[in-house]
Amino acid sequence: MFCQLLACKNPVKSHIWRNFFFMSGTPAGIYISRNYNVPDVRKPAGTGLSLAKHHIETTYRKPSSQKESDDVSE
Q1: Whether this model's pTM surpasses 0.85
Q2: What DSSP assignment string belongs to 13-72?
Q3: Are 13 and 5 within 8 A, CB to CB?
Q4: Is residue 4 within a helix (H) or strand (E), and if so which, with residue range?
Q5: Which residues, 6+ apart, have CB-to-CB distance to 8 below 8 Å?
Q6: From the first residue on, what is the mean pLDDT of each consecutive set of 10 residues in the chain (74 residues)?
Q7: Counting beta carbons within 10 angstroms of the beta carbon of residue 2, is it exposed (0 to 12), middle (13 to 18) or buried (19 or more)?
Q8: What sign does the CA torsion over 47, 51, 57, 60 have?
Q9: CA-CA distance, 33 to 39, in Å (whole number)?
Q10: Cα–Cα dist 35/40, whole Å
Q11: The pLDDT of residue 60
């Protein structure tokens, strides 16, 4: 029954249900972050993002031609 409410044909009801979950999740997140020791995820996320960026750059970068390396040394 609950899945039927989320997948209803009426776009207004569907919109209301999606907003209900968002609006109830926001205060729940605020309550949890204030009353429990939740670690800060910004630093590990930034580290992971920089590692992923470095890996993608080194893996998919075009190999430099010999001419370009000769021009740089001159």
Answers
A1: no
A2: HHHHHHHHHHHHHHHHHHHHHHHS-PPP-HHHHHHHHHHHHHHHHHHHSPPPPHHHHHHH
A3: yes
A4: helix 2-6
A5: 14, 17
A6: 56 76 89 89 87 90 66 52
A7: exposed
A8: negative
A9: 9
A10: 14
A11: 84
The residue type at 58: T
Question: Residue 49 corresponds to which tokens in the numbers above?
Answer: 């993002």
Residue 65 in tokens: 């031609």
In 3D space, the residue among 47, 28, 48 whose CA is nearest the CA of residue 38 turns out to be: 28
Amino acid at 70: D
Which residue reads 């993002």 in tokens?
Answer: 49
Return contacts of 50-54, CB within 8 angstroms, 24+ apart.
none
Tokens 């409410």 sit at which residue? 5
